[in-house]
Amino acid sequence: KSGFVTLIGRPNVGKSTLMNHIIGQKIAITSKKPQTTRNRIQTVYTDPERGQIVFLDTPGIHKAKNKLGEYMVNVAESTLKDVDVVLWLVEPTNFIGAGERHIAAQLQKVTVPVILVINKIDTVKREEVLEFIDTYRKIYDFAEIIPASALRGENRDVVIDMIFKYL
Length: 167
Ligand code: GDP
Ligand code: MG
Fold this sequence. Notes:
The protein is α/β, with parallel strands linked by helices. The protein has helices at about 15-25, 60-65, 70-75, 80, 100-105, 125-140, 155-165; strands at about 1-10, 40-45, 50-55, 85-90, 115-120, 145. It is a peripheral membrane protein.
């Protein structure tokens, strides 16, 4: 199996941490190359048995900090249609705002599975995580919702397993 995955989410939610740990835990082919005019970065995770996952990082989100809507339109028109799975990372600090609703709306156009990763669960109580899951479930029909800690490695394997499940 092989396929493309895009990692979306607000700055600082842990996208790079998750990706670095995924790549780091099994030394694979890593490549960083500008792919399009938007400077998409792609990193390849190789599992000898299961196949390859190409992660598309979209650095534009950092520049578009206060223009999440604009960014998402671009993403919706470019990255989202080129991928097999969408990974949306959030952190359980603030609840759903306009930015999240906009992302959810853009994702309605997507036909591929969207996996929600609730990262940084090491920073909150279990009940808060459950509450978070319930809230997010109402705004989008996620293929999977995975509570995780990219930093501590919690459920990192589950994220990989679920990606392969949908490839
Ligand atoms: P990005 O902007 O989405 O790529 O976020 P980064 O990967 O750069 O992470 C932003 C900050 O969150 C860094 O200080 C990370 O160490 C921290 N961070 C990432 N994942 C976790 C996590 O699971 N738990 C905690 N406590 N901190 C995390
Ligand atoms: Mg980053």
